[in-house]
Structure formats: structure tokens, C-alpha cells
Write the C-alpha cells for this entry.
Amino acid sequence: MSCFDNIDKARTPAHVAVIMDGNGRWAAKRGNSRIFGHEQGVEAVRNTIKAAAKAGVKFLTLYAFSTENWNRPRFEVEALMSLLVNVVKSEADELDKNNVRLKIIGDLNSLPKKVKRETESIVEKLSENTGLTVLMALSYSSKWEIINAVKSIATDVKKGKILPDDISQELFDNYLSTANIPDPELMIRTSGERRLSNFLLWQLAYAELYFTPKLWPDFTEEDFYEAICNFQNRERRFGMTSEQLKKTN
Ligand code: IPE
Ligand code: IPE
Ligand code: MG
């Protein structure tokens, strides 16, 4: 039986974030280049988007390229950039057909002009869709995002638009690239690594973390459902006691 049948749709997390990791190791195991691993990872992206939509997830954030990934060998960075453009372009019609919206989070200005232009045009093409929103984290890092938010807040204080006392958690949320999007309730990382690698540090404050040893190109629809089922079997206490939660339910 598929784990899908056990998912309680009323309690599906609204937002799931994924660190798609392990492409390089997947390829190395097969005696292939890291680039081959990235190419094979595309199918797992398709599977994950499909599974998220079927499970009733509203927002899916995929970590595609981090600020730190710019430090990889130039050859790999260039291959990743052209793969990104090609995939976004070739998947656009299918995403549109499935009513998927796309949003890019990250330092778009650091991307090669072509990558920026092409991705922005697909974002625009899909902007009227009302189904699943895929947030692609591209040239993204959480510390970059937080510093950006702090700079914008400081500027608005200086201009007199807001007062220092207006700064609250809610206001801060609105200065992040995920403004108006609920925080992820579940974060999945493949490849067995157990770290956040500068991903959504603020937004993941109370997320459930799910780690699987599977390498990203091997990640299937069923693996996504398994993560959701695992999430639904956890008790999220938010600082309270188990007894308190039982009384309120
Ligand atoms: C994830 O796979 C993809 C990106 C970071 C772009 P990796 O390329 O990190 O693969 P491993 O972790 O080296 O196996
Ligand atoms: C995190 O994976 C970034 C992406 C998946 C895009 P990395 O493979 O770059 O992270 P580290 O180096 O293991 O922390
Ligand atoms: Mg990695």
C-alpha cells in the first residue's frame, strides 16, 4: 500500500521545504561526472512537484543553488546554470498545465543575465496560476536574506516609514523573500547529511526536520509521501506539554 493512502489531507503541511542533496555522490557511485548527477536529479524534481500537488501542499521550496555553491569549480557552476535555464524552460508548459506557480528566492542579481531573464519570463508566464506554488531557491542563503531584510528595515526606519518599536516578528517576516507565505512545517533533506546549509534559518524555526539517506536522483513520489506520513505521526508541542495538547484536542 502506498503511504499516500495514509495521508490525512486535512493535516497536510501547507509548506514543505527540500534540500535536494547528493547528486554528485550519486554520479560518483556510477563512475560518472557530477554534472550527470545533476541532470539525473531533474526527474526527482518532477516527482516531488507532482507528489506535493497530489498531497495538497500549497508551497514547495526547493533549494537549487546556494550562495556557497558559487565556490564550486567553474565548470560545475556553468553546467548548473545552463541546466537550470534549460529545465525551467522545458518544464514551463507542463507546470502551466498543472496550474503551478513559480517564484524565485535568492540574489537574482548575482545570476548570469540570461539565467535571470529566462527564469523571470517563466515566472511571469505562470504568475496567474492558482495551484501549488514552487519557490526555487537560487543563489540563495539565509544569512544573505536576513541581512537584506535588516538593511531594508533600517532604510525604512531612516525614512520614517516605520518606528524601531514597530519591529516585530510579523514585520520581519514581511521583509523576507517568503513574505506572505506560511513558514515550512516540514523540511526534507536527502543524502544523509544533517545540516541546514544556510537554508531558511528564520522560517524553519519550528519546522519538523526529516532526513533520508537516499541520494537526490533516487528520490521518488513515494519517498515524499513517506516524509509526509512521518511528519503526521509526530507530536508538535510548540513548547507545551503533551498533556496540554491532549486537553485542547
Ligand atoms: C545537490 O547535490 C545539488 C546542488 C548543491 C546544486 P550535490 O552537488 O551537493 O551532491 P553531493 O552532495 O556532492 O553528493
Ligand atoms: C545545499 O547542498 C545546497 C543545495 C542543495 C542547493 P550542498 O551540498 O551545497 O551543502 P553542503 O556543502 O553539504 O553543506
Ligand atoms: Mg551536497
About this structure: The longest strand covers residues 59-66. The radius of gyration is 19 Å. The beta strands are 15-19, 59-66, 101-105, 133-140, 186-189, 208-211. The mean pLDDT is 97.
